[in-house]
Amino acid sequence: MDTSTTGGPLPREAVRPLEALLQDDDPTHRALLAQLPHPRVTGHCQCPCASLDLGLDRAAAPAAPVTPDPAATASMHDADGEPVGGVLVFAQDGYLSGLEVYTWADEPITRLPPPDRLS
Ligand SMILES: [Zn+2]
Question: What is the DSSP string of 1-15?
């Protein structure tokens, strides 16, 4: 497990897709978006993909309405517009708890996608 950024603040490349997935009028998404300054990286996926476990101080922001996971989803495409996988946002008890990247290909996606690759 790569622990190099564990415990650190969310890297910018994680904040941008989270902002993109949560930026709408859904009340759960709005509340999770309001939590974005606060999460820290608490773990990485066992495989080389870019999925992150997140945790935050629950005193820092109000809980979002609890919904079934994933709390938000987007599909991901490559530079040619071909679908390559997707991104899932997870929440636990109304708090951001994970950002997962999955792929349709054999190789894991090792970098979080920029927002313009999401739809
Ligand atoms: Zn993985």
Answer: ---TTTTSBPPHHHH
